[in-house]
Amino acid sequence: MANNNISSVLKSLLLLLQLFVLLSQKRADSASIVKFLPGFDGPLPFELETGYIGVGEEEEVQLFYYFIKSERNPKEDPLLLWLTGGPACSSISGLLFENGPLTIKLDVYNGTLPSLVSTSYSWTKTSSILFLDQPVGTGFSYSKTKIFNTPSDLGEVKRINEFFHKWLGKHQEFSSNPFYVAGDSYAGMIVPAVVQEISKGNYQCCNPPINLQGYVLGNPITEVETDFDYRIPYAHGMALISDELYESLKRACKGKYQNVDPRNTKCLKLVEDYHKCIDGINMYTISSPFCETAIPRCYIYRYFLSEYWANDKTVRNALRIDEDSIGEWLRCNPDVKMAYANDIISNVPYHLNNSINGYRSLIFSGDQDMQVPYLATQAWIKSLNYSIIDDWRPWMINDQIAGYTRTYANKMTFATIKGGGHTPEYTPEESFIMFQRWINGQPL
């Protein structure tokens, strides 16, 4: 009788162990269909999947994603991988503030869960979008171990490439859809390199080729020091500094305003005078008020609301977040950003290689953005020395000028958005129409 009891206990323990292993595997690499989200009234009017994909030798890094199918024809429409900048800002910024089908209702926080409402400008009207939280420690992405490689540009390129191959392996119904990599701000350092990495993989053994067609970038950082140097000519063009100060800066600094030689005291003094003029300016959209705190009339108040929403237990349960995987959710994680290694100095060579390989590109800039001014973007595009196919002209929405555009050889299109800021969230309707025309192969 005793032996029978021992045998029964051992069998029970074995079953529990098998169950634990199955649950661990599910948690480590999972996907869930989400039909309802707290804060939104009724069932979601689109198809949302959330989940984790493990990357690394031991799949120690668990990258979290939101996948929304195209509302038009998901079997044939393009598939976009969206990377938010920062680095270390959650892709929920893209989903809820820039180009997704939901946004946070801008109400004064009263202790209850912030509300979500539908948008009219979602890029998912014409494309499926995979919003990715990266690098590890961003949004809901986490590491199963405290020991992992410090995030860096080149490291992220490898991880994102691995992530997408694994994701596509689990979603083979999208393997023939036209695929694009997209993002804005600091994602400008990552996206062109990811395109090149995926392109290389298409010519190597063992993996089925990905139907890579091109990429989309908004106000992209390309060469950090050069990009930021263009803030001073931009400030002059927008009447933020005087002609006299600008001419003096040009003479004393010779176009280099970021890493000034400490012996060049004249340049340093003039740069100080420049900062006195612009330090009260909202760098992300110069036509909007500058806000240091999250107050209801301030634009960044919606970011404050997003943290209340994403940290709510019912929201985490709905999104199927692994319990105890992270502590407080932050829209942008300053600790990850501080640890991040910027090891791509310039990605102009990646743009050049991608163009030579025949990939389409849409590069756009909000003309009110001083963080990465359109002048900087125009400068590196000009350095590629492509011939102009369709010269500078306005592009229109309802007989009104929405911005300006120029088309280059090698399938590259540049566009400005009139009144636009650092990301599509400042002019979402115009950004959507621009993207919709381009992704459908129509002239802007």
Automatic annotation (TrEMBL):
GO terms for cellular component: extracellular region. Gene3D superfamilies: alpha/beta hydrolase. It is found in: Secreted. It comes from the Eukaryota. The keyword Glycoprotein applies. Its main location: secreted. It holds the Pfam family Peptidase_S10. SUPFAM superfamilies: alpha/beta-Hydrolases. Residues 1-28 form the signal peptide. One of its GO terms (biological process) is proteolysis. GO terms for molecular function: serine-type carboxypeptidase activity; sinapoyltransferase activity. Keywords: Carboxypeptidase, Disulfide bond, Glycoprotein, Hydrolase, Protease, Secreted, Signal. InterPro entries: AB_hydrolase_fold (IPR029058), Peptidase_S10 (IPR001563). Probable carboxypeptidase. Belongs to the peptidase S10 family. This is Serine carboxypeptidase-like 7. It comes from Arabis alpina (Alpine rock-cress). The lineage of its organism: Eukaryota, Viridiplantae, Streptophyta, Embryophyta, Tracheophyta.
